[in-house]
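Hi everyone,

Forwarding the result from last night's run.
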Amino acid sequence: MPDLPPAPVRTVFAPSPIGRPSLGLVRMAVYNWALARHHGGTFVLRVEDTDEARVRPEFYEPLLDVLRWLGLDWDEGPGTGGAHGPYLQTERRELHLDVARRLLAAGELYESFSTPEEVAERRTRAGQDPRLGYDNADRHTSEREKAAHRAAGRRPSLRLRLPDGETVFDDLARGEIVFKAGSAADPVLVRANGRPTFALAGPVDDALMGITHNIRGDAMLPLVPRQLAAYRALERIGVARAVPRLAHVPMVLASNAKILNSQQDPAADALGYRDAGVQARTMVNYLAALGWSHPTRGGVFTPAELVAGFDVRRVRTRPGRLDVKRLTDLDTTHLRELTAGEFTEALVPHLAPLDGDRLALLTRAAPALRRRAKSLPEAARAAAALFDDEPAATQEPDFGALQAARDALTALSPWTGETLSALLKGGLAKASVTAVRTAVTGPAHGHLLLDFLVLLGPERGLRRIDGVLARSTAQWHRDRVA
C-alpha cells in the first residue's frame, strides 16, 4: 500500500439506511474492513442518516445485521462505542455546526442568498443552460446586499469556496485523476434552515474521527473536488490533520449489466443470501473477488487470506457483474474445505434443537454430508431425513423387491461400508436397490443411501424397511376389504 501515514490506518464504512443492504454497498464494507485488518488498523462504522427524505429507521438494524453475519467486526461504532462518537451522524449535528461557524469566521465559507429561480434566470440571461445550476455568483454579494436580503426575511445557506484552478487527485485504485477548473460549483455546507449537509458532515466526521483511508464506490468520484476542498479547509482551521486517501472502485452490475439495486432486484439483497443459507465466508470471498483477486489464491480464499493479501491496487477498474451460479458454486467449494468440526458447527443452526444422540449422529454423518451436499440447507435436509424415525418413503416401492432386499440385508455380516457397498453394487437386483433407496433415504437423498445405511446401522436401517413393508401390507389388506 503506497503512502501509508505514520499514524495507524483508520478506515470507515459509512452507509445510509435508505434500503436493504445491497451487495454493492456491503462490498465496500468488506474492502474497508480488509484494509484496516491488513495493516493492524481500526475499522470504523458510521451511519450517515442526515438525508431525512430518504432515511428509513427500519433499515438501520439490517445494516448492522449484515456486518455481524459476515464477521466484519467494527472497532468503533454503534453498539461498540469508541473515543470519537457518537457514530450516528444526526447525533453529531452540533459538532458539524460548530465547525461551520469556524469555517465561516475564517473566510472559507460565504453566505449565499440566491434562490434556484434566481440562479436559473441568471443562467438564461447569460445564454446558458439553466440545468447547469449554481453559478458561484454569491461570492461577490456585498454586505449592503446581504443586509437587504436579511431585511426581506431571507436566510442564507453557507457555501464552501472552491479553488479556481484544476483539482489533481491521486486515487489509490485508479491513479492520478485531473478535474478541470470549474467542473464543480461551490457546494452548500449548511442549508438556509440551519441544517448541515453531507458535504459538510462527511469531511468533518472523517477529520474528527481521524479517518486515514476510505474505499468507496465510483459513484462518489464526481464529489472529489468539493470534498478535497473541504478537507483542506478543515486543515487550514486546525480541525483536520491530513486529507484521507481515497479509492473509488467500480460498482456491481446485475447479470443484465444494469446497476444492482436492492429495492428493485431481490438478487441484490445481501441478507437474502444469508436467509438462503449461503455461508458468510463464501459471501466475503465472492464480494471481494468481484473485481479483485488474491495474489496467490486467485478467486477462492478465506476471510483470513483476504486480510493477509489485501491490496486495493489490485482492484480492477471495470465493473463486476453478479453471477449467482458462480456464487453457489463458490459456496460448495467453501463447504468442501470445512473441517468436519467446522461443518458440524455451521450446520447446527439450520437444524431443530438436537439432543445428545442426534448431535453424536450428526458428528458421525458430517464427513459424508460435507462430501455430498452442495449447500448447508441441502445438508440440513439430508440430516433431518437421517434423524427421522419414520420411514422415509413418500411412495410405495415394489413390495417383493423390498422384501428380497430386506432378507439380504438381514443376512449381511458384518454390517460395514464395504459389505453394504458390495451388496448394493452386485448382490441385489436393480429393483431391490431402488426399493431400498425409496424406503431408507427417500428420493431426495438417494445418493446418500450407502452413507445412511452405515450411519443408521442394522437395527435402525432394517426398522425403516420394516415400516414401509408393514405400511404396504396394511394397504394391501385395506384394498382387499374395499
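Residues 282 and 331 are 5 Å apart (CA to CA).

Cheers,
N.
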